[in-house]
Amino acid sequence: MKTPQVKLYYKNVMDEMLGKEHGITKEQLNELAKKTNPFIEQLNSQRKAGKIRYRDLPYQTETVESVKKIAGEVKDCENFVVLGIGGSALGNIALQTALNPYMYNLDDKQRKGCPRLFVFDNVDPTQIKSFLDWVGDKLDKTVFNVISKSGRTAETASQFMTICDMLEQKLGENRLKDQIVATTDPKAGTLRKITDKFGFRNLEVPDGVGGRFSVLSAVGLLSAAVCGIDIDELLAGAAEMDKKVSITDFYQNPAAVNAAINWHYYTRGKNISVMMPYSYELKDLSDWYRQLWAESLGKTKDINGNEIFVGPTPVKALGATDQHSQVQLYREGPNNKLFTLLAVEEFGSDVVIGNAPDIAPELAVLSGQKFSKLLNSEKVGTEYALLASKRPCLTVTFDKVCPHTIGQFIYLFEATTSIAGMLFNINAYDQPAVELGKDATLALMGSKEYSDLAKKIKPFEKMDSRFVI
Ligand code: PA5
User: Fold this and answer.
1) Active-site option among 324, 332, 362, 461
2) Would you report the helix, strand and coil content of the chain in percent, each value rounded to 5?
3) Which of 293, 292, 303 is nearest to 272 (CA)?
4) Which atom of ligand 1 lies nearest, measured to the CA of 212?
5) Is the minimum distance from the CB of 182 to ligand 1 under 6 angstroms?
6) Burial label, 372 (beta-carbon count in 10 A; 0-12, 13-18, 19+)
7) How confident is the model over 211-262, as pLDDT tens digits?
Protein backbone atom coordinates (compact mmCIF):
# COMPACT_ATOMS: atom_id res chain seq x y z
CA MET A 1 0.00 0.00 0.00
CA LYS A 2 1.24 3.50 -0.88
CA THR A 3 2.39 5.54 2.11
CA PRO A 4 0.22 8.65 2.49
CA GLN A 5 1.98 11.85 1.54
CA VAL A 6 2.00 15.57 2.15
CA LYS A 7 2.65 17.68 -0.96
CA LEU A 8 3.10 21.33 -1.76
CA TYR A 9 1.13 22.71 -4.72
CA TYR A 10 2.29 26.09 -5.99
CA LYS A 11 0.66 26.72 -9.38
CA ASN A 12 -1.64 29.30 -7.82
CA VAL A 13 1.19 31.69 -7.07
CA MET A 14 2.41 31.72 -10.67
CA ASP A 15 1.86 34.56 -13.14
CA GLU A 16 -0.19 32.28 -15.38
CA MET A 17 -2.83 32.34 -12.63
CA LEU A 18 -2.35 35.80 -11.17
CA GLY A 19 -0.79 37.95 -13.86
CA LYS A 20 2.62 39.59 -13.67
CA GLU A 21 1.88 42.09 -10.90
CA HIS A 22 0.95 39.51 -8.27
CA GLY A 23 2.18 36.22 -9.74
CA ILE A 24 5.67 34.77 -9.94
CA THR A 25 7.14 34.43 -13.42
CA LYS A 26 9.25 31.45 -14.51
CA GLU A 27 12.25 33.76 -14.62
CA GLN A 28 11.61 34.95 -11.08
CA LEU A 29 11.28 31.37 -9.91
CA ASN A 30 14.61 30.55 -11.55
CA GLU A 31 16.14 33.51 -9.74
CA LEU A 32 14.66 32.23 -6.49
CA ALA A 33 16.14 28.81 -7.23
CA LYS A 34 19.58 30.37 -7.74
CA LYS A 35 19.33 32.32 -4.51
CA THR A 36 17.98 29.43 -2.46
CA ASN A 37 20.06 26.51 -3.74
CA PRO A 38 23.24 27.44 -1.83
CA PHE A 39 21.18 27.69 1.37
CA ILE A 40 19.93 24.13 0.96
CA GLU A 41 23.53 22.97 0.76
CA GLN A 42 24.59 25.17 3.64
CA LEU A 43 21.76 23.85 5.79
CA ASN A 44 22.68 20.26 4.91
CA SER A 45 26.29 20.94 5.98
CA GLN A 46 25.24 22.68 9.19
CA ARG A 47 23.01 19.75 9.92
CA LYS A 48 25.84 17.24 9.27
CA ALA A 49 28.02 19.25 11.63
CA GLY A 50 25.38 18.75 14.36
CA LYS A 51 24.37 22.41 14.43
CA ILE A 52 20.71 21.96 13.51
CA ARG A 53 19.71 19.53 16.20
CA TYR A 54 15.97 19.39 15.52
CA ARG A 55 16.78 17.73 12.19
CA ASP A 56 17.95 14.60 14.04
CA LEU A 57 14.82 14.14 16.14
CA PRO A 58 13.19 11.54 13.86
CA TYR A 59 16.08 9.18 14.59
CA GLN A 60 16.28 9.40 18.42
CA THR A 61 15.58 5.77 19.18
CA GLU A 62 16.66 6.00 22.83
CA THR A 63 14.27 8.87 23.47
CA VAL A 64 11.44 6.96 21.85
CA GLU A 65 12.15 3.97 24.08
CA SER A 66 12.12 6.17 27.21
CA VAL A 67 8.91 7.85 26.08
CA LYS A 68 7.22 4.51 25.48
CA LYS A 69 8.40 3.17 28.83
CA ILE A 70 6.95 6.09 30.76
CA ALA A 71 3.80 6.14 28.61
CA GLY A 72 3.32 2.45 29.48
CA GLU A 73 3.73 3.20 33.19
CA VAL A 74 1.20 6.05 33.29
CA LYS A 75 -1.32 5.07 30.63
CA ASP A 76 -3.77 3.62 33.16
CA CYS A 77 -4.42 7.04 34.65
CA GLU A 78 -7.74 8.67 33.78
CA ASN A 79 -6.41 12.16 33.10
CA PHE A 80 -3.10 13.25 31.64
CA VAL A 81 -2.36 16.93 32.10
CA VAL A 82 0.38 18.83 30.31
CA LEU A 83 1.68 21.95 32.05
CA GLY A 84 3.72 24.01 29.60
CA ILE A 85 3.59 27.03 27.34
CA GLY A 86 4.75 28.07 23.86
CA GLY A 87 6.94 25.38 22.39
CA SER A 88 6.19 23.23 25.42
CA ALA A 89 2.47 23.07 24.64
CA LEU A 90 1.49 24.05 21.09
CA GLY A 91 2.88 20.89 19.49
CA ASN A 92 1.13 18.68 22.04
CA ILE A 93 -2.18 20.40 21.33
CA ALA A 94 -1.66 20.18 17.56
CA LEU A 95 -0.90 16.44 17.66
CA GLN A 96 -3.90 15.72 19.82
CA THR A 97 -6.36 17.69 17.65
CA ALA A 98 -4.94 16.20 14.47
CA LEU A 99 -4.72 12.58 15.50
CA ASN A 100 -7.44 11.90 18.05
CA PRO A 101 -11.21 12.23 17.62
CA TYR A 102 -13.00 15.51 18.29
CA MET A 103 -14.96 14.01 21.22
CA TYR A 104 -11.90 12.23 22.66
CA ASN A 105 -12.11 13.72 26.16
CA LEU A 106 -15.85 13.23 26.48
CA ASP A 107 -16.46 9.83 24.94
CA ASP A 108 -14.88 6.80 26.62
CA LYS A 109 -15.47 4.70 23.50
CA GLN A 110 -13.67 7.12 21.19
CA ARG A 111 -10.83 7.29 23.72
CA LYS A 112 -10.32 3.53 23.58
CA GLY A 113 -9.04 3.22 27.13
CA CYS A 114 -6.57 6.11 26.95
CA PRO A 115 -6.66 8.95 29.49
CA ARG A 116 -8.27 12.31 28.84
CA LEU A 117 -5.79 14.98 27.81
CA PHE A 118 -5.67 18.56 29.08
CA VAL A 119 -2.98 21.03 28.10
CA PHE A 120 -2.64 24.14 30.26
CA ASP A 121 -0.74 26.85 28.48
CA ASN A 122 -2.07 29.87 30.29
CA VAL A 123 -2.42 31.28 33.79
CA ASP A 124 -5.99 32.46 33.68
CA PRO A 125 -7.24 32.09 37.27
CA THR A 126 -10.82 31.28 36.30
CA GLN A 127 -9.71 28.51 33.94
CA ILE A 128 -7.35 27.04 36.50
CA LYS A 129 -9.87 27.23 39.33
CA SER A 130 -12.47 25.44 37.27
CA PHE A 131 -10.01 22.68 36.44
CA LEU A 132 -8.75 22.35 40.02
CA ASP A 133 -12.33 22.07 41.30
CA TRP A 134 -12.95 19.27 38.85
CA VAL A 135 -9.69 17.38 39.32
CA GLY A 136 -9.46 17.79 43.13
CA ASP A 137 -11.01 14.40 43.92
CA LYS A 138 -9.38 12.64 40.96
CA LEU A 139 -5.75 13.41 41.71
CA ASP A 140 -4.77 9.81 42.32
CA LYS A 141 -5.98 9.03 38.79
CA THR A 142 -4.30 12.05 37.21
CA VAL A 143 -0.75 12.36 35.93
CA PHE A 144 0.83 15.75 35.33
CA ASN A 145 3.53 16.19 32.71
CA VAL A 146 5.34 19.43 33.50
CA ILE A 147 7.32 20.54 30.45
CA SER A 148 9.84 23.33 30.75
CA LYS A 149 13.40 23.49 29.55
CA SER A 150 14.31 26.21 32.02
CA GLY A 151 11.83 25.51 34.79
CA ARG A 152 11.66 29.25 35.40
CA THR A 153 8.92 30.15 32.95
CA ALA A 154 6.46 31.90 35.27
CA GLU A 155 3.32 30.36 33.75
CA THR A 156 4.47 26.76 33.90
CA ALA A 157 6.25 27.13 37.23
CA SER A 158 3.19 28.59 38.94
CA GLN A 159 0.88 25.89 37.60
CA PHE A 160 3.39 23.28 38.68
CA MET A 161 3.78 24.67 42.20
CA THR A 162 0.01 24.84 42.61
CA ILE A 163 -0.42 21.25 41.50
CA CYS A 164 2.41 20.08 43.77
CA ASP A 165 0.77 21.79 46.77
CA MET A 166 -2.53 20.17 45.96
CA LEU A 167 -0.97 16.75 45.49
CA GLU A 168 0.93 17.07 48.76
CA GLN A 169 -2.16 18.15 50.69
CA LYS A 170 -4.47 15.52 49.26
CA LEU A 171 -2.18 12.56 48.65
CA GLY A 172 0.99 13.31 50.63
CA GLU A 173 4.47 14.32 49.51
CA ASN A 174 5.57 10.78 48.78
CA ARG A 175 2.96 10.54 46.01
CA LEU A 176 4.42 13.43 44.01
CA LYS A 177 6.72 11.14 42.14
CA ASP A 178 3.84 8.88 41.09
CA GLN A 179 1.73 11.70 39.71
CA ILE A 180 4.37 13.86 38.04
CA VAL A 181 6.52 13.35 34.97
CA ALA A 182 8.97 16.16 34.19
CA THR A 183 10.28 16.95 30.73
CA THR A 184 13.21 19.29 31.07
CA ASP A 185 16.85 20.07 30.41
CA PRO A 186 19.04 16.98 30.83
CA LYS A 187 21.55 18.70 33.09
CA ALA A 188 20.79 22.23 34.21
CA GLY A 189 17.93 24.49 35.26
CA THR A 190 15.33 24.84 37.98
CA LEU A 191 13.05 22.00 36.90
CA ARG A 192 16.01 19.62 36.58
CA LYS A 193 17.03 20.50 40.14
CA ILE A 194 13.52 19.83 41.48
CA THR A 195 13.17 16.66 39.41
CA ASP A 196 16.37 15.21 40.77
CA LYS A 197 15.49 16.09 44.36
CA PHE A 198 12.02 14.51 44.26
CA GLY A 199 12.94 11.64 41.97
CA PHE A 200 10.29 12.36 39.34
CA ARG A 201 10.15 10.22 36.26
CA ASN A 202 11.64 12.42 33.61
CA LEU A 203 12.43 12.94 29.97
CA GLU A 204 14.79 15.32 28.24
CA VAL A 205 14.28 18.48 26.23
CA PRO A 206 17.23 17.85 23.92
CA ASP A 207 20.15 20.25 23.91
CA GLY A 208 20.18 22.74 21.09
CA VAL A 209 16.50 22.29 20.18
CA GLY A 210 14.38 25.41 20.79
CA GLY A 211 10.86 24.97 22.14
CA ARG A 212 9.17 25.65 18.81
CA PHE A 213 11.25 22.95 17.09
CA SER A 214 10.77 20.40 19.87
CA VAL A 215 7.44 18.73 19.13
CA LEU A 216 9.13 15.60 17.75
CA SER A 217 11.23 15.24 20.92
CA ALA A 218 10.00 13.95 24.28
CA VAL A 219 8.23 17.32 24.64
CA GLY A 220 5.50 16.36 22.16
CA LEU A 221 5.91 12.60 22.07
CA LEU A 222 4.92 11.67 25.61
CA SER A 223 1.40 13.09 25.63
CA ALA A 224 0.93 11.72 22.12
CA ALA A 225 2.03 8.21 23.11
CA VAL A 226 -0.07 8.26 26.29
CA CYS A 227 -3.10 9.21 24.18
CA GLY A 228 -2.60 6.29 21.80
CA ILE A 229 -0.94 8.13 18.89
CA ASP A 230 1.53 6.06 16.89
CA ILE A 231 4.73 8.00 17.54
CA ASP A 232 6.83 5.64 15.42
CA GLU A 233 4.76 6.59 12.39
CA LEU A 234 4.95 10.25 13.29
CA LEU A 235 8.73 10.05 13.28
CA ALA A 236 8.79 7.85 10.17
CA GLY A 237 6.83 10.58 8.36
CA ALA A 238 9.30 13.21 9.55
CA ALA A 239 12.23 11.03 8.44
CA GLU A 240 10.67 10.64 5.01
CA MET A 241 10.28 14.41 4.71
CA ASP A 242 13.86 14.83 5.90
CA LYS A 243 14.98 13.16 2.67
CA LYS A 244 12.85 15.47 0.54
CA VAL A 245 13.91 18.68 2.24
CA SER A 246 17.57 17.70 1.92
CA ILE A 247 17.38 17.45 -1.89
CA THR A 248 19.75 20.03 -3.34
CA ASP A 249 17.69 20.63 -6.50
CA PHE A 250 15.43 23.56 -5.57
CA TYR A 251 12.55 22.37 -7.75
CA GLN A 252 12.43 19.00 -6.01
CA ASN A 253 12.69 20.37 -2.48
CA PRO A 254 9.30 21.43 -1.02
CA ALA A 255 10.83 23.32 1.92
CA ALA A 256 13.04 25.35 -0.40
CA VAL A 257 10.20 26.21 -2.78
CA ASN A 258 7.89 27.04 0.13
CA ALA A 259 10.48 29.25 1.85
CA ALA A 260 11.46 30.99 -1.38
CA ILE A 261 7.86 31.79 -2.35
CA ASN A 262 7.18 33.15 1.13
CA TRP A 263 10.33 35.27 1.00
CA HIS A 264 9.52 36.49 -2.51
CA TYR A 265 6.12 37.78 -1.47
CA TYR A 266 7.36 39.27 1.80
CA THR A 267 9.89 41.36 -0.10
CA ARG A 268 7.07 42.56 -2.38
CA GLY A 269 4.75 43.84 0.31
CA LYS A 270 2.78 40.66 1.00
CA ASN A 271 4.04 40.41 4.54
CA ILE A 272 1.14 38.49 6.07
CA SER A 273 1.06 34.70 5.82
CA VAL A 274 -2.35 33.17 6.35
CA MET A 275 -2.52 29.46 7.06
CA MET A 276 -6.01 28.16 6.48
CA PRO A 277 -6.64 24.44 6.98
CA TYR A 278 -9.77 22.94 5.44
CA SER A 279 -9.88 20.33 8.16
CA TYR A 280 -10.76 20.73 11.81
CA GLU A 281 -8.13 18.13 12.62
CA LEU A 282 -5.43 20.39 11.18
CA LYS A 283 -6.70 23.50 12.93
CA ASP A 284 -4.16 23.58 15.74
CA LEU A 285 -1.26 22.97 13.39
CA SER A 286 -1.79 26.58 12.32
CA ASP A 287 -1.31 27.65 15.91
CA TRP A 288 1.87 25.64 16.10
CA TYR A 289 3.02 27.12 12.77
CA ARG A 290 2.21 30.63 13.99
CA GLN A 291 4.71 30.31 16.82
CA LEU A 292 7.30 28.62 14.62
CA TRP A 293 7.09 31.31 11.97
CA ALA A 294 6.75 34.32 14.30
CA GLU A 295 9.46 33.50 16.84
CA SER A 296 11.86 32.23 14.21
CA LEU A 297 11.55 34.96 11.60
CA GLY A 298 10.52 38.06 13.54
CA LYS A 299 13.89 39.67 14.23
CA THR A 300 15.35 43.14 14.72
CA LYS A 301 18.79 42.31 13.40
CA ASP A 302 20.29 40.27 10.62
CA ILE A 303 23.13 37.87 11.33
CA ASN A 304 25.66 40.67 10.79
CA GLY A 305 24.03 42.83 13.45
CA ASN A 306 22.37 45.30 11.07
CA GLU A 307 18.92 46.52 12.05
CA ILE A 308 16.34 45.13 9.65
CA PHE A 309 13.08 44.66 11.61
CA VAL A 310 12.00 41.73 9.51
CA GLY A 311 9.35 39.03 9.76
CA PRO A 312 6.15 37.93 8.05
CA THR A 313 3.09 38.03 10.30
CA PRO A 314 1.49 34.59 10.51
CA VAL A 315 -2.28 34.50 10.75
CA LYS A 316 -4.37 31.44 11.44
CA ALA A 317 -7.75 30.89 9.88
CA LEU A 318 -10.00 27.88 9.51
CA GLY A 319 -11.92 26.80 6.45
CA ALA A 320 -14.87 26.82 6.10
CA THR A 321 -15.54 28.71 9.38
CA ASP A 322 -13.49 31.80 8.54
CA GLN A 323 -14.93 32.14 5.06
CA HIS A 324 -17.81 33.71 6.96
CA SER A 325 -15.50 35.93 8.98
CA GLN A 326 -12.31 36.78 7.09
CA VAL A 327 -12.72 36.18 3.38
CA GLN A 328 -14.38 39.53 2.71
CA LEU A 329 -11.15 41.17 3.93
CA TYR A 330 -8.94 38.59 2.25
CA ARG A 331 -10.52 39.28 -1.15
CA GLU A 332 -11.27 42.98 -1.05
CA GLY A 333 -8.84 44.33 1.54
CA PRO A 334 -5.17 45.09 0.87
CA ASN A 335 -3.44 42.54 -1.33
CA ASN A 336 -0.72 41.98 1.29
CA LYS A 337 -1.15 38.31 2.09
CA LEU A 338 0.10 34.94 0.94
CA PHE A 339 -2.38 32.15 1.65
CA THR A 340 -1.37 28.62 2.54
CA LEU A 341 -4.43 26.40 2.37
CA LEU A 342 -4.30 22.91 3.87
CA ALA A 343 -6.45 20.30 2.15
CA VAL A 344 -7.25 16.66 2.88
CA GLU A 345 -7.89 14.22 0.03
CA GLU A 346 -9.38 11.38 2.05
CA PHE A 347 -11.02 12.11 5.38
CA GLY A 348 -10.82 9.47 8.13
CA SER A 349 -14.59 9.28 8.24
CA ASP A 350 -17.48 10.81 6.38
CA VAL A 351 -21.12 11.69 6.81
CA VAL A 352 -23.90 11.96 4.27
CA ILE A 353 -25.91 15.20 4.38
CA GLY A 354 -29.54 14.70 5.42
CA ASN A 355 -32.70 15.11 3.32
CA ALA A 356 -34.02 18.49 2.23
CA PRO A 357 -37.53 19.26 3.54
CA ASP A 358 -40.19 19.28 0.80
CA ILE A 359 -40.85 22.96 1.37
CA ALA A 360 -37.17 23.80 0.72
CA PRO A 361 -36.34 22.17 -2.61
CA GLU A 362 -33.53 24.72 -3.01
CA LEU A 363 -31.57 22.70 -0.40
CA ALA A 364 -31.89 19.46 -2.35
CA VAL A 365 -28.59 20.12 -4.08
CA LEU A 366 -26.79 19.33 -0.81
CA SER A 367 -28.89 16.37 0.24
CA GLY A 368 -27.30 12.92 -0.09
CA GLN A 369 -23.85 14.32 -0.75
CA LYS A 370 -20.90 13.85 1.56
CA PHE A 371 -19.56 16.42 4.00
CA SER A 372 -16.05 15.70 2.65
CA LYS A 373 -17.20 16.84 -0.79
CA LEU A 374 -18.78 19.95 0.70
CA LEU A 375 -15.65 20.94 2.65
CA ASN A 376 -13.32 20.31 -0.29
CA SER A 377 -15.66 22.25 -2.57
CA GLU A 378 -15.50 25.12 -0.08
CA LYS A 379 -11.71 24.99 -0.31
CA VAL A 380 -11.60 25.03 -4.11
CA GLY A 381 -14.38 27.62 -4.25
CA THR A 382 -12.59 29.97 -1.87
CA GLU A 383 -9.27 29.48 -3.63
CA TYR A 384 -10.97 30.30 -6.93
CA ALA A 385 -12.44 33.45 -5.39
CA LEU A 386 -9.07 34.48 -3.93
CA LEU A 387 -7.41 33.94 -7.30
CA ALA A 388 -10.12 36.00 -8.98
CA SER A 389 -8.95 38.83 -6.69
CA LYS A 390 -5.30 38.12 -7.58
CA ARG A 391 -4.41 36.73 -4.14
CA PRO A 392 -1.61 34.15 -4.23
CA CYS A 393 -2.41 30.73 -2.77
CA LEU A 394 -0.24 27.78 -1.88
CA THR A 395 -1.85 24.48 -0.97
CA VAL A 396 -0.43 21.73 1.20
CA THR A 397 -2.34 18.53 0.48
CA PHE A 398 -2.58 15.61 2.87
CA ASP A 399 -3.49 12.29 1.23
CA LYS A 400 -5.07 11.70 4.63
CA VAL A 401 -4.51 12.92 8.16
CA CYS A 402 -2.49 10.28 10.00
CA PRO A 403 0.67 10.19 12.14
CA HIS A 404 2.81 9.72 9.02
CA THR A 405 1.54 12.83 7.22
CA ILE A 406 1.50 14.93 10.39
CA GLY A 407 5.16 14.01 10.92
CA GLN A 408 5.86 15.04 7.33
CA PHE A 409 4.04 18.35 7.70
CA ILE A 410 5.84 19.28 10.91
CA TYR A 411 9.22 18.51 9.43
CA LEU A 412 8.40 20.30 6.18
CA PHE A 413 7.52 23.51 7.98
CA GLU A 414 10.48 23.31 10.35
CA ALA A 415 12.84 22.96 7.38
CA THR A 416 10.94 25.72 5.54
CA THR A 417 11.55 27.96 8.55
CA SER A 418 15.29 27.21 8.53
CA ILE A 419 15.58 28.07 4.83
CA ALA A 420 13.39 31.15 5.20
CA GLY A 421 15.67 32.28 8.03
CA MET A 422 18.62 32.03 5.64
CA LEU A 423 16.79 33.97 2.95
CA PHE A 424 15.99 36.69 5.47
CA ASN A 425 19.60 36.48 6.67
CA ILE A 426 18.58 36.18 10.31
CA ASN A 427 19.11 33.74 13.16
CA ALA A 428 15.95 31.62 13.10
CA TYR A 429 16.78 29.80 16.32
CA ASP A 430 16.86 32.48 19.02
CA GLN A 431 14.01 34.44 20.63
CA PRO A 432 15.55 37.34 22.59
CA ALA A 433 12.29 39.26 22.67
CA VAL A 434 10.49 36.38 24.38
CA GLU A 435 13.17 36.21 27.04
CA LEU A 436 12.77 39.88 27.97
CA GLY A 437 9.05 39.41 28.52
CA LYS A 438 9.72 36.40 30.74
CA ASP A 439 12.26 38.33 32.84
CA ALA A 440 9.90 41.31 33.07
CA THR A 441 7.12 39.12 34.45
CA LEU A 442 9.42 37.74 37.14
CA ALA A 443 10.56 41.28 37.90
CA LEU A 444 6.96 42.44 38.42
CA MET A 445 6.23 39.42 40.57
CA GLY A 446 8.99 40.65 42.90
CA SER A 447 12.08 38.67 41.91
CA LYS A 448 15.19 40.21 43.54
CA GLU A 449 17.26 38.97 40.63
CA TYR A 450 15.40 41.38 38.34
CA SER A 451 14.98 44.33 40.72
CA ASP A 452 16.62 46.81 38.33
CA LEU A 453 14.32 45.74 35.55
CA ALA A 454 11.35 46.01 37.95
CA LYS A 455 12.19 49.68 38.59
CA LYS A 456 12.05 50.36 34.86
CA ILE A 457 8.73 48.57 34.43
CA LYS A 458 6.93 49.87 37.53
CA PRO A 459 5.65 53.06 35.82
CA PHE A 460 3.80 50.88 33.31
CA GLU A 461 1.82 49.05 35.98
CA LYS A 462 -0.62 51.86 36.65
CA MET A 463 -2.74 53.46 33.97
CA ASP A 464 -2.21 57.19 33.49
CA SER A 465 -5.66 58.59 34.33
CA ARG A 466 -5.29 61.37 31.75
CA PHE A 467 -5.69 58.77 29.05
CA VAL A 468 -8.50 56.70 30.53
CA ILE A 469 -11.99 57.45 29.20
O1 PA5 B 1 10.03 28.40 21.49
C2 PA5 B 1 10.43 28.72 22.59
O3 PA5 B 1 11.62 28.61 22.91
C4 PA5 B 1 9.48 29.22 23.67
O5 PA5 B 1 8.17 29.32 23.20
C6 PA5 B 1 9.49 28.27 24.85
O7 PA5 B 1 9.11 26.99 24.43
C8 PA5 B 1 8.55 28.73 25.94
O9 PA5 B 1 8.85 30.04 26.28
C10 PA5 B 1 8.64 27.83 27.18
O11 PA5 B 1 9.95 27.80 27.69
P12 PA5 B 1 10.38 26.71 28.76
O13 PA5 B 1 10.37 25.39 28.09
O14 PA5 B 1 11.75 27.08 29.22
O15 PA5 B 1 9.40 26.77 29.90
Assistant:
1) 324
2) 55, 15, 30
3) 293
4) 1
5) no
6) middle
7) 999 999 999 999 999 999 999 999 999 999 999 999 999 999 999 999 999 9
The string of pLDDT tens digits covering residues 395-409 is 999 999 999 999 999
Render 88-136 in DSSP notation, one character per residue.
GTHHHHHHHHHHS-TTTTT-HHHHTTPPEEEEE----HHHHHHHHHHHG
Note whether 340 and 397 are within 8 A (CB): no
pLDDT of residue 435: 84
The pTM (predicted TM-score) of the whole model is 0.96
Nearest protein CA to atom 15 of ligand 1, as residue: 148
Ligand 1 touching residue 192 (CB < 6 A): no
Pick the catalytic residue: 233, 295, 383, 414?
Answer: 295
Q: How far is the CA of 88 from the centre of ligand 1 (A)?
A: 6
Ligand 1 lined by 295 (C-beta under 6 Å) = yes
**404 labelled catalytic:** no
Ligand 1 lined by 183 (C-beta under 6 Å): no
The pLDDT tens digits for 16-74 are 999 999 999 999 999 999 999 999 999 999 999 999 999 999 999 999 999 999 999 99
Pairing of β 307-310 and β 313-316:
unpaired
